[in-house]
Amino acid sequence: MDGFMLGTDLLQYTVSGLTIGVIYALVAIGYNIIYNVTEIINFAQGEFVMLGGLFAVFFVGTLHLPIFIAFFAAVFMTGIVGYAMERFVIRRTRDSSVLSLIIITIAVSILLQGSAMYVWGKDPYSLPAFSSGGPIMVGGAAIQPQALWVLGVSALVVVCLTVFFQRSVYGKAMLACADNPNAARMVGIPVRQMVLLSFVLSAAIGAAAGVIITPISLMQYDRGALLALKGFGAAVLGGLGNFFGALVAGALLGLAESFCAGYLSSGYKDAVALVLLLLALFFKPEGLFGSGEAAKLKKF
Amino acid sequence: MSKKEWWIFLGFGLFIAVFPWLVQPVRAISHYIDVMVFAGIFTLVTLGLSMLMGYAGQISLAQAAFFGIGAYSSGILTGHFDMNPWAAMPVGACLAAFVAWMLGIPALRLKGHYLAMATMGFGVIVHIILNEEIEWTGGPSGMVDIPGLSIANWKITSEIAWYYLIWGIVFLGLLFCFHILHSRVGRALRAIHEEETAAEAMGVPTARYKVQVFVLGAVFASLAGSLYTHYVTFLNPGSFNLMWSVRFMLMVMVGGMQSLWGAVLGTILLTFIGNEWLQVFADFEILVYGAILLIVALFLPKGLISLVPLAIGSRNSRASAMKEGGS
């Protein structure tokens, strides 16, 4: 009986770990997109997730739109925030040092957090699940249908992005900007527009993560910072710039966190991902899937 | 130190010395002494951060954590173990130094974004520990009844006494920092800030100096935390979270990163803004901080202190400023 219980718990923790893990992966992918084009790490990435969730709350709760329309509306609105961030802030920082770029993106994240508090207050909000119906029982573990939505949407995002960057002209052009902005400009790639696109895209993906997770774990104005840190952990662990790596590393972080909460201490579950982040930074800053040789050539 | 620096030093010292006598008779602003005590405590934190950011060109989002390590070391050692506060303080500082060293050796091989994230992650971990170790720290509700400070048999209770004690320590800290900046280490730090690779090629052990400055900043923050604990005599984790690290960074930025005086100016200004003038905004001060940070970073990257020579407007001061930058 005990063995069976253990198995059930394990399955339950695995499912919840993977669900939260793919959210970290989506945050990590947001970092990667901007990083791939600009070599900037956007400290406001977690705020996009928070905004996505809260915008959806506004569209569903206040405007009574169906959840699927609210999903796209929230993604669209957050995309506009990403657009504004690049257009009115990042664009002014052409010659800034890494230090001031960090400070500027931190400033934007604080502004977004403060604005969200102004609009939505300090309460946590929930959303209805995407599809009705009770949990699905698998081997004694209850799987929320929303968890399947989280996994499905995340998988779709990763596939679409991979195709976008490897097959489409725009995607390839974006990668060229990261490699060498001057050369890209010379062959006629509008670098500025690519940077703008990268911010819009990563804001939209962050927002999608925010909307799909809100029915499970609620959303409030100050969730961004921790999501950003854990997402960065996933990005580093997976190798900065590597989409597939982000997915694996995000899942790993989510599982570690979920097992810690289940078997050790729920109070320290947030610390687990951060300790892993520190370990990754110290011992393998190029990540599990990145190449050490390439990492040495990076600007920072 | 140059003659000009001594004059600034003297002038500022004089201002600090007479400040209480100026505000005390006016009842409406007599509590400014209390605000200045906090400003002094925070200045100790930002002096260390200014050395790290302005001179070594590194970022740390863990200063609130080191501040917390000092505060809680003092709180726990004096509260749970009846240790003398003056003995507990160096224990906290040693702990902070050790932790900073452990964190600094691997982390300062990292640069820019990585370092920012590593220190941020570390800061959040410390905050979680302060919240979770309820047996020792009291958890989210914090600790109360922490003993105050006394010298021999004299208990330091009056605000004025605290004011002079804290600012006395700040001046010692300032002298110490200026001494370092004018030494070999200071020149090395400036070289690192200008062009790290070149500095390394010239034989400057850049990594070692960066770790040392990081440890120094942690010790300053820890001592400030201890003094804070004994001044307010209660603690809760809210004062040591990420937002406070950002606030310390903001203080350095607003005043001016590349000058210790900038850190002093920014800290006093922002402490007054936070403790006094932003009370009307209550919860929305975070919005104001974000706006200030963004505006300063975009339009005034060298901080308010860079406006001082312009304000004085004499060509002499600008010329001498240039000469000093070049020497």
Q: What keyword list fits this structure?
A:
heterodimer; A: 300 residues; mainly alpha; two-stranded antiparallel ribbon; 2 strands; globular; B: 327 residues; two-stranded antiparallel sheet; disordered C terminus; ABC_transp_permease (chain B); membrane (chain B); cell membrane (chain B)
Can you put this structure into words, describing what you see?
Chain A is mainly alpha-helical. Chain A has helices at 2-38, 45-62, 67-88, 98-120, 145-167, 169-179, 181-186, 191-217, 224-237, 243-264, 269-283, 292-297, and strands spanning 136-138, 141-143. Helices cover 75% and strands 2% of the residues of chain A. Chain A has a two-stranded antiparallel ribbon with strand order 1-2. The longest helix of chain A has 37 residues, at 2-38. Chain A is globular, with a radius of gyration of 19 Å. The mean pLDDT of chain A is 88. Chain B has a two-stranded antiparallel sheet. The interface between A and B is large, with 46 and 40 residues. Chain B: It holds the Pfam family BPD_transp_2. Chain B: Keywords: Cell membrane, Membrane, Transmembrane, Transmembrane helix. Chain B: It comes from Desulforhabdus amnigena. Chain B: The chain crosses the membrane at residues 7-23, 29-49, 61-81, 87-105, 112-130, 160-181, 211-228, 248-274, 286-312.
